[in-house]
Amino acid sequence: MDEQNVLVRERLRKLEELERAGVDPYPARFTVRHLAADLHREYAALSEEQAAGPEVVIAGRLMSLRSHGKATFAHLQDGSGRIQIYIVRDTVGPEAYELCKKLDVGDHLGVEGSLFRTKTGELTVRARTFQFLSKSLRPLPEKWHGLTDVETRFRQRYLDLIANRPVADTFRKRSRLIAEIRRFFDERGFLEVETPMMQAMAGGAMARPFITHHNALDLTLYLRIAPELYLKRLIVGGFDRVYEINRSFRNEGVSTQHNPEFTMLEFYQAYADYHDLMTVTEELLSHLAQAMMGGQEIPYQGQRLSFAPPWPRLTLEEALVKLARLDAETLSTEAGARETARRHGVISVPGWGRGKILGELFDALVGPTLHQPTFIIDFPTELSPLAKAKAADAAVVQRFELYAGGMEIANAYSELNDPREQRARFLEQLGRRDQGDLETHGLDEDYLLAMEYGMPPAAGEGIGIDRLAMLFTDSPSIREVILFPLMRPAQGAQGERGTADAV
């Protein structure tokens, strides 16, 4: 029998002894009146001379435990931080003190007592009474104080949150980031809305969808790859400023920057174009930097990113020529672009036009090099079936992507609102799908019907919340800012066995 199972059996024995003694190890509730962090802050001036400080009631998980005969010291961790507790036999009574022998690191405990400061200067709760709130049947990982195994951290995020306090801080910061985003848009007259996550037709982005089935209606449905087409229906309906913080799904690979299920902010503004949204984006990220970091600069992976506007703006083709040092004349033809891709090891497949190849070249050679916030503007029409073309050049659309930290953070454009041109673009996509491009989608007649009732000039934008959270928490991987990232199922992993299996 391995050491882990021996430890579990020992904890089960203690649990049974508690129950035989009439102690409920899993009570329904406990009234908490104080948090560790508040006590440290409010009673920072409590001196050693004050023998009996204020009465407190706290609860949390035991993170350390050491017994000295008739006295036991432990550290209790709640959602705000840690505080030391001190259980003395003469104070709690002999019968209650015997229960200390049933305590283990990982147990949840409720404590009532008074504050004092030890001779070493540590703020401590002298227990008058204590109560088991949850008996932990599994020991924390041996190196719980610095859990580093990636598989364990992501598969058993609860252990990661217990062991690595900075991880919990990351997710608190992520929540605060989203709250600031909401505040920014609410103050500017945008209406927060919700749109369907299951859709009869995938659309709104160039990506492969997940497919599901509704049994009662015998209907094939798609998990949304973007909320775009529904949000634009609301623009048609008269909501001039809308936003949604949404969950979207794309059936694509997993990497440090991609998770198949992700969170996105998408917003639309009537009577605006992509230049207006560049200004909004600068204002938003500048606001977030100030609110979250107290200034316009943030640290990210060893660099300082400045969100002080204005940010540089380069067309996609200018970026390929100036930053990747490609030849503009060679890129001007499909054959030249395809040959350039071949020379740089960038895969291009039959059916791709010049615009698609330029996009792949940019993603491979330029995007990862853009660390300071930079707008890449004016994309090939082929890459942007929902964007309005530039008046001077129908082969280019009024679109931008924002890059920062070597990642695409946002994608936006002036919306195509001519239903005739939109139908032609959809039909062109159908042709490319027949040639093997699985990221293109079908003809959405319902969306076209909405457009035929008249959609005002508008611009829309999507911002990746997960990648934004990466920037503002200085995280190198998207998995660090998603509580439960997608992973292959573990085969026979210890963390997926029940208690009975472990013994």
Describe the protein's topology.
Elements: H1 3-20, H2 36-42, E1 55-68, E2 71-77, E3 82-88, H3 89-92, H4 94-98, E4 108-117, E5 123-134, H5 150-155, H6 157-163, H7 165-187, E6 191-192, E7 198-199, E8 211-214, E9 219-223, H8 228-236, E10 241-249, E11 261-270, H9 274-293, E12 297-300, E13 303-306, E14 313-315, H10 316-322, H11 328-331, H12 334-343, H13 354-365, E15 374-380, E16 389-390, E17 393-404, E18 407-414, H14 419-434, H15 445-452, E19 458-464, H16 465-473, H17 499-502
Parallel strand pairs: 3-5, 6-10, 14-15
Antiparallel strand pairs: 1-2, 1-4, 2-3, 4-5, 7-9, 8-9, 10-11, 11-19, 12-13, 15-17, 16-17, 17-18, 18-19
Helix pairs in contact: 6-7, 7-9, 7-16, 10-13, 12-13
Would you write up a description of this structure?
This protein is 34% helix and 26% strand. It is an alpha+beta fold. The protein folds into 2 domains: 137 residues, Nucleic acid-binding proteins (OB fold (Dihydrolipoamide Acetyltransferase, E2P), Beta Barrel); 276 residues, BirA Bifunctional Protein, domain 2 (2-Layer Sandwich), CATH 3.30.930. The strands form 4 sheets. Strands 6, 10, 11, 14, 15, 16, 17, 18 and 19 form a 9-stranded mixed beta sheet that branches. A 5-stranded mixed barrel has the order 1-2-3-5-4. The longest helix has 23 residues.
